[in-house]
From TrEMBL:
CDD domains: PTS_IIB_glc. This is PTS system beta-glucoside-specific IIB component (Glc family) /PTS system beta-glucoside-specific IIC component (Glc family). GO terms for molecular function: kinase activity; protein-N(PI)-phosphohistidine-sugar phosphotransferase activity; protein-phosphocysteine-trehalose phosphotransferase system transporter activity. It comes from the Bacteria. The keyword Cell membrane applies. PANTHER family: PHOSPHOTRANSFERASE SYSTEM TRANSPORT PROTEIN, PTS SYSTEM ARBUTIN-, CELLOBIOSE-, AND SALICIN-SPECIFIC EIIBC COMPONENT-RELATED. The chain crosses the membrane at residues 56-75, 122-143, 155-175, 182-202, 222-240, 252-281, 301-323, 391-410, 430-453. GO terms for cellular component: plasma membrane. Residues 6-88 form the PTS EIIB type-1 domain. It is a multi-pass membrane protein. Residues 113-461 form the PTS EIIC type-1 domain. It comes from Pelolinea submarina. The active site is at C28 (phosphocysteine intermediate). GO terms for biological process: phosphoenolpyruvate-dependent sugar phosphotransferase system; trehalose transport.
Length: 461
């Protein structure tokens, strides 16, 4: 049955307390995310019963309405017809104004929301560039002579550019999140990638800034240096635009921002970012070594609940650190892929066992979305969570498949969508991830068929 987008949109706005209760509206692949002035004004149970709404969750400080394929037209309707801010994140002062107790959980939620909002704007570009790299790698593997073609070379430049200049993309996303001028952040990130600066790295010349030795590091492909630098710039921007007299502000505020920020960035903030990034990578590498790859299975087993909590984008940061430092990710990307396969496998099990034709059709559709497109929310909220036992099958399938991937040494060498189509990004470990995908699919289907489910539960909304 077709969804009336106008009716669905107006109902959602009404159920979350009206436009006056909303300070921010964002969109990810399958859900709308609202920052509400008072989340208690939202009619969550009523919203869950609305046709077209798969689920409602609250996580990372955001009220999240899962819509699946309907998210794009609804979000466009909100942007066009409602006086609600979109695509931006509320300022720190607005976050702190919320009537929430400032305990550890409050600050943890604030950090999660900040990181998620900062990386969301550019992740899609990295996915696309990563998959383009894979296509080029496969082409050169099967037809080695193609690598000598200028067309191949130019496409390779394009595929490499978003990763090399990732600090600039991060600077933009972080600045937009902090509501600071992204041009300052971009300029500072670009300064770290300036060809002559990069040329100093590894040389014999001692470089100093204000008499202090500069730690020369290649910042291409890095995550944290640009993130931390942008935070510093945001505070300096607010300070200087406040203290510099209005008659001098146009010229001297930007001068002061850049002049004060650059020494701090070059001497402290940017090197500190690489050090912290190194520790993050070493932590996951050490965990992987201790567990022998079982950690991948454990993470895959809890991934459905991470997605339901809206925390999955938080893991993009350490994923990027792994790819930057090790040139591969043997932890997060395998987990993400195998979780989606497990969700799809459980849905296939439901489709096989279900008697109701509509349930069979919905389960097959959700399975295809999870396995082929890497979109798991329709499978989670539309099928597996509502039937309960299939969700346990997802956990079992994810654990067994994740352990298989970890023990076989599956490694993703680039970003890519978390579906079966991501197999090529594993390059020389494609066989390992293929076996893990097969194991995950078989186990999740079998677990669903063995445990069964209460088909009547799907009627509950």
């Amino acid at each position: 049955m077709a969804i009336n987008v106008e009716e669905l949109t107006s109902t959602i706005i009404e159920k979350i307390g009206g436009i006056e209760n909303v300070t921010l509206a964002e969109m990810c692949v399958t859900r709308l995310r609202f920052k509400l002035k008072d989340k208690n004004k939202a009619d969550t149970e009523g919203l869950k019963k609305v046709n077209g709404v798969l689920s409602v969750v609250y996580g990372a400080g955001l009220y999240q309405v899962v819509l699946g394929a309907n998210v794009f037209p609804v979000f466009e309707k909100i942007k066009r017809d409602y006086n609600i801010e979109t695509s931006e994140v509320v300022e720190d002062s607005e976050l702190l104004a919320q009537p929430e107790k400032k305990n550890f959980n409050y600050y943890l939620q604030a950090v999660i929301q900040f990181l998620s909002a900062s990386v969301t704007p550019f992740v899609t570009v990295l996915y696309g560039a990563g998959m383009l790299k894979v296509v080029l790698s496969l082409a050169s593997y099967f037809w080695p002579e193609v690598a000598q073609n200028s067309t191949y070379t130019l496409f390779n430049y394009l595929a490499t550019t978003p990763f090399y200049f990732m600090p600039i993309l991060i600077a933009y996303g972080t600045a937009k999140t902090l509501k600071s001028n992204p041009v300052f952040a971009i300029a500072m990130a670009a300064a770290l990638l300036y060809p002559d600066f990069v040329g100093l790295v590894g040389g014999d010349t001692t470089v100093t800034m204000l008499g202090i030795p500069v730690i020369l590091v290649k910042y291409a492909n890095t995550f944290l240096p640009a993130l931390l630098s942008t935070i510093l710039l945001a505070y300096l921007e607010r300070f200087f635009y406040k203290v510099v007299p209005a008659v001098l502000r146009t010229v001297f505020a930007p001068l002061c921002i850049l002049a004060f920020a650059y020494p701090i960035v070059v001497l402290i903030v940017a090197p500190l970012g690489t050090i912290i990034g190194g520790y993050i990578v070493n932590m996951f590498v050490g965990l992987y070594k201790v567990t022998g790859g079982i950690s991948v299975g454990l993470l895959a087993a809890v991934w459905p609940f991470i997605v339901m909590g809206g925390f999955n984008m938080l893991f993009v940061a350490p994923m990027l650190e792994l790819l930057s430092n090790l040139k591969y990710d043997n932890f997060f990307r395998p987990t993400w892929v195998l979780h989606n396969i497990a969700e799809g496998g459980a849905c296939i099990g439901v489709a096989i066992r279900a008697k109701d034709k509509q349930l069979k059709s919905d389960a097959i559709s959700a399975a295809i979305g999870a396995i082929v497109s890497g979109v798991s929310e329709p499978a989670i909220y539309g099928i597996n969570l509502r039937l309960r036992k299939p969700l346990l099958a997802v956990v079992i399938g994810g654990f067994v498949g994740g352990c298989t991937a970890g023990l076989l040494g599956a490694k993703a060498y680039s970003l890519g969508y978390s579906s079966i189509l991501a197999i090529p990004i594993f390059l020389d470990t494609m066989l390992a991830i293929t076996i893990a995908i097969g194991v995950t699919l078989v186990v999740s289907i079998a677990a669903t068929l063995i445990m069964g489910f209460d088909e009547d539960a799907i009627a509950e909304k």
